[in-house]
Amino acid sequence: MTRVTTVVVKRLVLILVMSMPVMMFANSDKAYAAGIESLVMPGKLIQGHAKYESECSRCHRPFSKGSQNVLCLDCHEDVADDVKENKGFHGRTRAGKESCSSCHDDHEGRDAIVVQFSRETFDHEQTDYALKGAHAGTDCVACHAIGKKYRSAEHRCISCHSKDDIHRENLGEQCDDCHTAQGWRRQDFDHNETDFALHGEHAEVACNSCHVDQQYEDTATECHACHRFNDVHAGRYGAECADCHQEKGWKRISFNHDRNTDYPLTGKHRKVACDTCHSDGSFDRELGTDCVSCHRDDDVHRERYGERCDSCHRTSGWEKMVFDHDAKTDFLLRGRHDELLCSACHRGELEEEKLGTQCQDCHKPDDVHAGKLGEQCGSCHNESGWAGQLRFDHDLTNFPLIGLHAVTPCEECHLSALFTDAPGDCNTCHQDGDVHRQRLGPNCETCHNPNAWSLWEFDHDAGTDFRLDGGHQGIDCHACHKQPAKRRISMTTSCDGCHRQDDIHDGQFGRHCERCHDAESFESAEMR
User: Fold this and answer.
1) Minimal CA–CA distance to 95: which of 111, 112, 116?
2) pLDDT digit string (tens) for 268-307?
3) 3-state secondary structure (DSSP) of residue 273
4) Is residue 106 exposed (0-12), middle (13-18) or buried (19+ Cβ within 10 Å)?
5) What are the boundaries of each domain within the chain?
6) Three-class SS of residue 408?
7) What is the reported pTM?
8) What torsion do the CA atoms of 296, 297, 300, 304 make, to the nearest 10 degrees?
9) Across the strands, what pairs with 249?
10) Which tens digits make up the pLDDT trace of 75-128?
11) Closest among 63, 62, 61 to 72, alpha carbons compared
C-alpha cells in the first residue's frame, strides 16, 4: 500500500478503537492503553511533539476533526492570538480558516520538517512587516537570528539598528519618525512642524550642522547662534543678521537701502560692500551724503575743482562725466579739444582761475611760428589738429600762388615754421636751377612765368634800349650776356662792346661801327 493509504487505515483503526466502550479498558492500566494507541498511530511524532506521543487526546478528539484546530491553538497560544487578531503570518493568511494539519502533519517522524516554506519564495507581505526600500535586499539572518523562531524578530528599528544610531538614542527609539526604509539619508521628518521652519539654503543643510552632538532639544534659532563664524562683519553689525540677509544665501540682501535710508544706492554704489562706507561697523552713525565724504582720497583733482563731484561725475563711474562744457561755458569743445582731460586746460583752482578762449592763451608754448604769424591761429588751423586741413589763403599775401607754385609743398619754400622768412624773389629758391648762371640777372620773372620754365616770353625791343634786328635776330642770349649780373643787367649798346674782337680795322676807325656797317653783316659797308 502507499504511504497515504497506510495513514488512512491507521487513522480509521484509531477512530474505531477510540470509539469502543470505555468499559473495555476500565480495568486496563495506562501503559496498556498507550500500547493500543501506538498500534494505530500513523507514524512517529515530530521531535517537538515527541513527549506527547502517548497522549493522543492532547491533539485528537474522537469523531471531531474540527476540534483538532482548537486543541492545536490551545497549545500554541501565540499563534492563537495571531489568528484571533488577524495579525502575523497565521492571522493574515488562510491558516486561520484551514486546519493546522493541512500544513503541519506531525506524524512524519522525529526528523521531519513540518514548517513548509522557502526563504527564497516566502512572501514577507503576508506578515506584519512588509519588506520595503533597503529592507527588501536584506538577508533573512540579518533580522531572524539562527535558532530562534521567525516570529520573535522585532519590528522596531532600534532592535536592529541600535549600532547605526548616530543620535545615540538622544532622539528616542522611533527612527521612522525621521527616516524611511529607503535608507538613513532619506529623511521624512518635517522640520516645518517645529518652531523653526526650514527655508532657502537651510533646507539643504545637514542636520548635524545645527544640531551638534545630536542635541535636538533647545536648539537656538537666532542666526548668530549658528553663523557667528560666517559673520564677515566680525560682529560689528550686531546679531540680527535677518535685518539684511535672507535664508536664500548671504549674498541675497533683503535690506532696501533706497527705501529705508535717505541715500538711494545707484550705479556702482549698489555693488559696494557695506563696510566701505560704514567702516566702523555702526549703522546708527549718520554719514555724509556728499561725494567728498567718501571719495576725498579718490579726488585726482586734489580739490582744485571743489567738492561738488556730482556736477561732472555720476555714480556709474568716475570716467562717465556729464558736465556739458558747450552749454555751461563760452568755449565749445570741438575736435581734439573734446578728447582732452579737464586738467589739460584747468590747472589751477576751478572757481578762481579765469581762462582765455584764444588759441594763444593755451598754445603759446606750442607756437612753432614763434609768434611771427600773430595770435590768430584759427586763420590757418582748426580744432582737428595742428597738422589737419590748413585753411590759409596764400593769395592774400604778397606772393600769390599761381602756376606750379600752387601745387608746390609749403616746405619747398618755407624752410622753417616762421614762414615770414621765406623770400619773395625767384632767384633765392631757383638759383641752383639757373641755366643762365645769373648772366641774365636775378629777376627771372622778366622772362619766365610760374607755369613752366620753358614757357617764357621777353620782348627785347620793347624792354630794352637795344633793338634786335638784322643779324641780331635769333641770336642766343648768352652770346651777348656773358657775365653774371647780381642785381640788374647793365650792358653797353655800342657795337664795340661785343664786336671788338671782330674789328679788322683794329680800332683805326673808332668805336662807332654803325657809321659804315649795319646790323645785317660786317661784309657790307657804306659810309654814312
Assistant:
1) 116
2) 998 888 888 888 767 778 888 899 888 988 888 888 888 8
3) coil
4) buried
5) 358-422
6) coil
7) 0.38
8) 40
9) 246
10) 999 989 988 888 888 888 765 577 888 888 888 898 888 887 788 888 898 898
11) 61
